[in-house]
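Subject: Sanity check before I submit

Could someone independently write out the structure tokens for this chain? I want to compare against mine line by line before I put it in a report. The sequence has 170 residues.
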Amino acid sequence: MMPPASDRVTVSVTVATDPATAFARFTEETDLWWRTGPKFRIAGREPGVLRFEPWLGGRFMEEFESRSGPQVFMQGRITVWQPPERFQFEWRGVNFAPGESTHVEVVFEAVPTGTRVTVRHSGWAALPPDHPVRHGRRGPAFLRATGLWWGDLMTAFREFTAERLDRAGS
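---
Independent answer below. Compare away.
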């Protein structure tokens, strides 16, 4: 069942490759295309690795060094794994309490120019309006900011995929 539009963000990009390649690049090379910095990673600008464990129940996690030693932050678990069509995972921000999570679905659809990759992030209604993940934003303003955040990441994925194609073609 699809969550209500007021509870989800949907962002799509088209990449010039087949769904199997797009799925593999998205899930196996995540750390290479996912933006860095405090807006996108728990480690901020410090070195770290962001990755999916490619199986049902696998973790989505970030590993990095901190002053207190190696850290692993599990952002969620894979709840659906159907390569090369789609996968879903729980999403937990660093400021989520135990038991709090949202849900992300990523769909890879063949189109005449390659693959449309669509991210749907939902479950926000289950979090309180004053939850720290909202950074003081409410309703449409929060969803708009989240959509722009995913749009930035999906643009990075599209650019990464195009660079890979350029290198392969040269």
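---
OP: Matches mine. For the report I'm noting this point. The chain has a mean pLDDT of 91.
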